[in-house]
Amino acid sequence: MLHFSRLKTALILVITALGILFAVPNLLPASVLQVLPTWLASSRVTLGLDLQGGSHILLEVDASALKKERTEQVRDEIRRVLREQKIGYTGLTIRDTTVQLRLRDPNDTQNALTELRKLATPLTNSILGGSTGESDMTVASAADGQINVSLTEAGLNARIRSAVDQSIEIIRRRIDQLGTTEPTIQRQGADRILVQVPGLQDPQRLKALLGQTAKLSFRMVDQSMSPQQALEGRPPSDSEVLQSADGAPYLVEKQVRVSGEDLVDAQPGFEQTTRQPIVSFRFNANGARRFAATTQDAVGRPFAIVLDNQVISAPVIREPILGGSGQISGSFTVQQANDLAILLRAGALPAPLKVVEERTVGPSLGQDSIHAGKVAAVVAAVLVAVFMLAVYGLFGMFALIALAVHITLMFALQSLLGATLTLPGIAGVVLTIGMAVDSNVVIFERIRDEAREGRSAIAAIDKGFSFALGTILDANLTSLATAVILFLLGGSGPVRGFAVTYILGLLTTVFTAYTLTRLMIAWWVKWQRPAKLPI
Question: What predicted TM-score, i.e. pTM, was given to this entire model?
Fold first, then answer.
């Protein structure tokens, strides 16, 4: 057990040296990091929200808006189906999540029921992938040719779950383009999303980015009457009055000529002549074709660019736009243009999000947490050092050297993996300081037992390491299994932060407390050839 080949010795020393190399950038100031190679300068532990400050927002999918939108979609689909089948109807109305209508000819009831039931979508089990036997809507008839099409509770819940999943991906794309590091975006409950962005001290900007649905549409301005006349009287059935950011009314057609779903890119920039901030956009092939056809037919007419039912701008089309690209101007600031480009690139949310909870963690509070964690780590290290030196002497010194390497390797691995260090993570570091020397205590006590039985110093050391290996592996494997379960099922960021630190600590403990300590003792035995153990 005390023999180490040159290759094995070199491997242990290389691992230790690499650990020190990748952990050192965490201790260097920014001025020194600038002169280091990029691959090394970027090797730093990312601090979590509770350590470096940042923004915390809890969002909730607006279920009522989602139900309303879905019900309106069903009404439009019913209208389309009945028109295609040439089935006459009257009184197409919405009552909560039910669409009601009355057929002009009751003899068309069976045909109408057959066609409308085709609109229902079977629900699938999200885990097994099979059908649940339910659908997202029910179609039933009543007396005198009345038909009720109702959204089912299971269908609405499935749509809410889907909206949360889509929203998480869109939120992630929006935040990633802010340039922040390690944001936490995760589901909470059935309809809520937790967003934590370390380092971002402007929660209002984050709320503005996440709170906007960002549904972009291009529509024609209705010039059949003025917006004021439409407000005072009744606007045309196929038009509606929308406000601009400065409160100016516009009478806009309801028909969407080109949708924001056809956008493939949006970038902030500056208009060449006025140097005002703008947003340049580019369509895919389908959007470019529709945009070209619309601008060809509407030369000389104003064209409304609408974002979340608000008119951003309404320029007059001077000539056909055939290239599939254009620009949006609207008296933006540079930041507003940049944020709008982010929203358009990331895509529209499937439903509005409401802010349920928000808070900002200041950097001073984070620094207090770091200071408290440092104090706890230093106190723990000092107490462990005093105990090991007092009880085990020289062998205790070997254990303390291994402990220092253990902490270094933990931070090196966190840096390489891009793991986020949170306040519970610091608690995990403090915990593993005690656990790291626990293996050495097991080994040293076993060596003492062998020496008491009359074995020589070298034989006692060899037997002590041999017999302690099984105990150390069993203890660490059971702890590792617990830590993995904690990471997988812990849910929240702080719990996972603790689990990550704990897992890394267990892995490095086996290397440092057993292998590295054994190597140092083997060198000591080779040099000193002791007749008696200093333990």
Answer: 0.64
